[in-house]
Each structure stands twice: as structure tokens, then as C-alpha cells.
Amino acid sequence: MAKDKKVEQITDMEVDFAQWYTDVCKKAELIDYSSIKGMFIYRPYGYAIWENIQKMMDAEFKKTGAENVYMPMLIPESLLQKEKDHVEGFAPECAWVTMGGNEKLEERYCIRPTSETLFCEHFRNVIQSHRDLPKMYNQWCSVLRWEKTTRPFLRGREFLWQEGHTLHATEQEARYADFCENILAMPVTRGQKTEKEKFNGAEATYTIECMMHDRKALQAGTSHYFGDGFARAFDITFTSKDNQREYPHQTSWGVSTRLIGGIIMTHGDNNGLVLPPKIAPVQIVVIPVAQHKEGVLEAAQKLADRLSAAGYRVKMDTSDNSMGWKCAEYEMKGVPLRVEIGPKDMEQNQCCMVRRDNREKTFVSLNDLEAAAAEQLQAVHDGLYQRALKNLQEHTYVAHSLEEAKQIQEEKGGFVKTMWCGEEACELKMKEVAGMSSRCIPFAQEDLGDTCPICGKPAKKMIYWGVAY
Amino acid sequence: MAKDKKVEQITDMEVDFAQWYTDVCKKAELIDYSSIKGMFIYRPYGYAIWENIQKMMDAEFKKTGAENVYMPMLIPESLLQKEKDHVEGFAPECAWVTMGGNEKLEERYCIRPTSETLFCEHFRNVIQSHRDLPKMYNQWCSVLRWEKTTRPFLRGREFLWQEGHTLHATEQEARYADFCENILAMPVTRGQKTEKEKFNGAEATYTIECMMHDRKALQAGTSHYFGDGFARAFDITFTSKDNQREYPHQTSWGVSTRLIGGIIMTHGDNNGLVLPPKIAPVQIVVIPVAQHKEGVLEAAQKLADRLSAAGYRVKMDTSDNSMGWKCAEYEMKGVPLRVEIGPKDMEQNQCCMVRRDNREKTFVSLNDLEAAAAEQLQAVHDGLYQRALKNLQEHTYVAHSLEEAKQIQEEKGGFVKTMWCGEEACELKMKEVAGMSSRCIPFAQEDLGDTCPICGKPAKKMIYWGVAY
User: Fold this and answer.
1) Element holding B138 (H helix, E strand)
2) What is the pLDDT of residues B48-94, one digit of tens each?
3) Chain A to chain B, count of Cβ pairs less than 8 Å apart?
4) Rg (alpha carbons) of chain B, rounded to whole number
5) Prediction pTM value
6) For residue B71, which residues of chain A lie inside 8 Å, CB to CB?
7) Which of B97, B100, B118 sits opposite A34 (nearest CB)?
8) Where are any strands of DSSP class E within B317-413?
């Protein structure tokens, strides 16, 4: 098939990965730029992906008993300051409101960069007894962080996210991993962040790390265990069954529109976006072939109606653009399955299904339409997952010395796993010499030796290193 | 049934309507106050009402072809200034961001009070040809307006809403009216706002006005027709079929969490909240009677399971609180239907259903459980609507002189309809003398006479006056 002009405008990822990424975001009409740096416009096609992610995650959260709430978007500076580590981390990247109408405010307010402090203030008001626990709250909202370097989805001054806040320890990160693997077809590495990389104010931060096409790491979601640090700072207490005043233990967790950046860089190719079927705004595009011929439009419409009735998100394109244009357009937009039907197909009571991930064509009897669509979409999902898993496995290397780690990073990219003594000095050294930060201390530990390859002291943990977005 | 202490804390509405309202918002756990005036915390029970409203409205919007998008929350001052009337109206109530991190911004940004300017800037980028029209966009977000007087749901410095922005004239207000009547059981008066009361920058504003228990008016939703005013200010043009450059016509419309305030004040009573079944977070509460007796809990659970399976939002309360406490609690929370089952009911294969709106009890055979629940919930909806309609009709009066209007307002409240010359001077006079603002010029006009009762000049329209929230 002749390549279309529109698609040729996408830079090949091997030539310039960053430009390929920007091209896909723009040409597939996911985002537009606004007049403020780092504040992106989510266009209908991009926002619909987020809506699908939201819908599925929200249902999962509610199943576990989490309840949605909405907190104010502004935080008084004095409230942000209540937890010392937290404010030190976030204050430098807050946007500050100093005027309300024509009047200067007595105290400045920041637009939430995250809402731990607001949740804590509220928890203090509503929690008295052990009968009020656990509290499992979630909020869908946008947050602001005044970043210097920004990129669509990956790093914005404003981004959309959910933030869960609970008053008992849970294993939320496990659920994220399931979500990424089962819904987004993204394989993940699960583990704990180092002291250096953990969230401001947390006792421990857990993360799921994914590998992109260019072999860089993307932190796709995090959860934090706060112990009772925030509870003490905000004086949140409850009366236990033994009638004692106690401080509850606290967690928070969140994933954001960053996930969409991860989907693009995990599954996309040189023809554009490739979307996992479960979150694709359009799962199946129906294209009539030789649509001016008698009966073709009707047959295509019937087919589209049947697929819609079976619960799929379906679009039919009967515009007068050429067949080549249409194929290229929906490939670029990452629609997982294309279904074509023309006069010859009608004669044989069949249609042609083309998978987006590998362009494989299958002719399907119209009698089996719905079952075949289900099968093909599952095949696309599995194909995407397997390809991403292969990328992750093939580009995860073991290193036994700092030099070796550096060489792997320079020549191959990907994750480098080593043993580690646990000292921040060695993290700084790795960053300085090999340009990699610690990604996580995986839950699935391996024994690669006895000593830290950076300082030579006894090793405590196996750790993953990488260059991250 | 003995009244419960918790419920007795709600002030009677006849004693102090404003206090009754605040009591209901707090005791039914709809909202909490934050440390910033006018920025409310939407607690799980209050937020769930909004989620239900959202879900139903969103489905309606999508049916008409509207697409959801997300625009940045900040607007550069220079962008807000592009449409003169618009900025004059909104600038005095904007919250301004002047610092990003530790740096003073070169230009200050306001947090969106509404997003016309952002949509226009984006429309200019994405619209070239008549083939790009119509554009029907919608956004769910929160907006800020730095109000001096604030009340939960009714007037907040931050509130949640949807804002639709389209590039062709539509009759959205008609859809709102349907939504309020069919889903929220709130009868409305539809019409056009006067020049004085219209939206900043609009050519015409349409409104739906509801009457509250205290006979004050609540503007429940508005839509605006902009003509091509914004398009000219923002230089949005398209190439017509005749290959001419033209300015598109524009509308916007929105409803907000204010609706929840309207629901409370339309349907609530001295026992607390009364929720229309379609948006109630819990539609049916199941309460076992004498639950320590053998088999009661199992029977209640089976009943709750059947109702859940039939698609209702069901809660069962097996706590050790007294029967009286439970009845009062769920009355206060406005749960539309209470279902009780105890040993005597079990013997007779029945349960007892109690409607929230009029406390009517019905004994129902368990064989007919699902059908009876559907019938009772519909009866609650209809009952609420009829009661609200009666309130609206009984408290809408005709006046033929300014004095008469004043007297009606002082003695009875409600809507006063008169003829009107069309002059703003007469609106100001009515406000000064009778304390009422114009609510709308109803689409359903009536001929009440030839002259304006305020100035005596020839009348042009029939108009509604009222005291508004």
C-alpha cells in the first residue's frame, strides 16, 4: 500500500525518538499546545484514552471499598508547611496564588501539587474512633508542578491524575501492576524506591517501572507508606478498642496521564500510535471497499452495527478519502483492528480483518463476525504485551562493575541490575559515571554476588539502574 | 418512632431556612469546610451524588455528538483580555497566580473562572474548513470565582461543573430542562435572561429557573449564544463551501454542583435530605428487624442481593445501632426507599417498604420484590416532582403594579410575573422597591396587559421576578 503523506510526516523512531514521540502526539490529535509552556490541551482522542483508563481504574478502586471525594485545589502555605520533608520537596515547584480578585491575599495559596496535607486536615476532623477506620479515599483531579522541562503526557506543569489516600497500609502497588499488565499490555518491574528517590515525607515508596521503545525507564505509578509521620504532624488520632489515643498509619498512591505517554512509547511504531484494545477510543474501524458499488455501504453499516451491538467502540469511515488514506489514517491513530468489506467479500459472505500491531490479515466468515473480532482484539493485546515483554527481557542486563554498567548503558541502554551496598554515595557515583539513576529495589530479588560493584563494600540488595523519563 | 438525637440537631426549616440547609449539608455528610473560605470538601456521600449526575449528563451529551476535552486550568491575563465584556465581568473575581516556584511570573495567570477564551484559542488552531464544523466540545472540571459571600454548593469560590462549547447554535437549554425534570424531579421555568442579567460577552443567555422550599429562585443551568463576537475577537475563521472566509457562531452552556444545592432545597424536609432515586448514592437501604433472631440476617442479605442484582444501589445496615437510630439515620441521608424484614415478615413471605418522601408503608410479597421496588422508587420520583410542581405553581403570582409586586414578595415570596417595557431602569426600580431581580423572560409568554407596571410605558414582554440564590 502506498504510504500516505500524512503518515510520512512522522519521523522514524530510529532517527529521532523524541521527534517521533512529538509527531505521534500531534498527528494522532492527542494533544495541542496552549500558550502556557507545559500546559497541554487534551484533545478528544487523547482525552478519551484517559476516560477509558479512568473508568476501569475507578471500578477497580470501588471494588476494594475506596470512595471518591473532592478536595479544594488550593492549599494555604501554612498547611503545606506542617510536614517538613513534604514542603521542602514541593515548595520549589508550586504555582502560588497571591491575589483574589483585586485584593492581595493575607497568606499565599499554592495550587495543589498533591493533596496529602488537605486529606490530613480533613482526616483530623472526621476520625475519632477505630470504628472510623479504615478510610480509603480517592480523588480524580488535576495537579500543578512548575517544571522547567516539559513534554506532552510525560512531564507537564499541569497533569490529570488520581490520588488515593488511605489510613491503613495496603498493597496498592500490586493492583497497579495488574492494571498495567492486564489493561495496558505493559509489563512492569515492581519494587521499592531508594531513600534518595522516595516521595517527600514518605517512609517508603513503591514503584512500577516500565521500559520504553528507546529502552529508557518510565515510572508508571507509585505508592507511598507514611507510617504515622503525617498523622503526628497533623495531630490525627483515634481511640482504639482499648480506649487509647493512637496515631493511624497512612498510605497514598497515584497514577496520572503519564501512563498515556508510556502507552505511546511502549507500543507505538513508525506508522504512529498503537493502542491496547481495552483503552482505545475506537477499537474497530470499518472501511467499505469500493463503496460506490451497490450494497457495499449497507453491508458495511450492518457489520458496524453488529460490532457495536456486541459492545465494541466502532467507527465507520464512508468519507470520500482514498482507501490508502483511510488505512494510513487509522494506523496512525492506533486503532487496534481494521475491518474491510467490499463486493468480492460480500459474494463470499466474508470480511477482512487487519491487526494494527503486525498488519496480519485474516478473512472471516460474517457468520463468525463477533467471535472473530473478540479473538483478533485479544490477539492484538497479547501481541503487544509479548513484544513489550521481549523488549524488557532482552534489554535487562547484569553488571558486576561500575565500568561494565557504564558500557552497557552507552552501548545498549535498558535496565542494568547490580548488587548494592545501600549507600546514597554509590547512587550518586552511578549517576555521575554511567548517567543512570536507581529505578527500584525489585521485590523479586536475585543474588548476583556479595559486594557492591561501586564501592566494594558488602552488598545488601539487588537494584535496577536506568535512564528515566 | 422516637426521634433520634442526631436528627433533632437539624433546625426546622420554618424556624431558620438557612440554618436548616447548613445542617443538612453537614449532618448528611455531604460536605466539610476547608481552611479556605468558600472552598468546600466534597465528602463521599456528596461527591457520589455529583458522580451520578455526571454519569447521566455525560451519556446525554455524548449521544448528541459532544466530545470531552481538557483545557489548562490557567489563563494568561492577555488571553482573558481579548474579549472586552468578558474580561470586565470576570477579572474582578479571578484568583491570580503570580509566582511559579520561586520565580515571579512575567505575566500573571488566572485560574479559569470559565474557559471560553481557552476554547477560542484552541478553536482558532484546529478549525480551517466548514468540514471542521460543527465542533461540540465539553469539559468536566472545577473553576474558581473569588466570591465574597459563600455557601455550600450554592456559591463557592471553587465549584465543579461541566462547560460545553460549540461552534454552532443549539438548543442546549432544552436538554437541561429535560434533565432537571426527568432525573432530578425539579420542575423548571425556561426563558431568556435580560440584557442586564446575561453572561459577560454573550449576545443572549438562556436559563432554567427553579423554585426552592423557601420560595426563592435558583438558576439551575444556563446556555449562552455568542453570535460571532468571540470568533471575531479571537480571529476564528473557516472556509465555507463557497470558498469564503467566515466567522463561525458559538454557544456555551454549563451546569454545576449548584444543582446539588437545588436538590437539597427543593426536596429536603425537617428530617433531612430527600434524594431523587435516579441520583441517590444509596437507592434502597435494607434493615433487618430483630436481627439476632434466627434466619433474619440471612433473609435480609438475600433480599439485598436480589435488589443489587436487579441493578439498584443497595446498602444493608447490620450494625448494633437501634432500629430507631437506623431509620432516622437513613431518613436524614435521604435514601429514597427503606426495606425492613423481620421474623413476622419472614413467616408471611413479605417485607415492608417505606418511602422517604411521605413515609408511606407498603407490605410486599417477596415474590414481587424487584417489581415492587421499581414501582416504589418511581412513586418517590413522581411524588417529589408533583410536590415541587405544586410549590412552583402555588407560589407564582401575577402583579399589575409595582406596589402589588412588592406586597406579594413581602407576604408570600415566590415568583411574580408582570409585563415589562424592556428597560433596565425598570429592572433596577423593581430591585430597589421590591428586592427582586428579573429571573427570565419565559419562552411560554402570557399576555397580562398592555403596559409595564413599573414605568407605565407600552409592555414588550412578560417577565418573571424573584429573590434569587
Assistant:
1) strand B136-144
2) 999 999 999 999 889 888 899 999 999 999 999 998 888 888 989 99
3) 149
4) 25
5) 0.91
6) 34, 41-42
7) B118
8) 337-341, 350-355, 361-365, 396-398
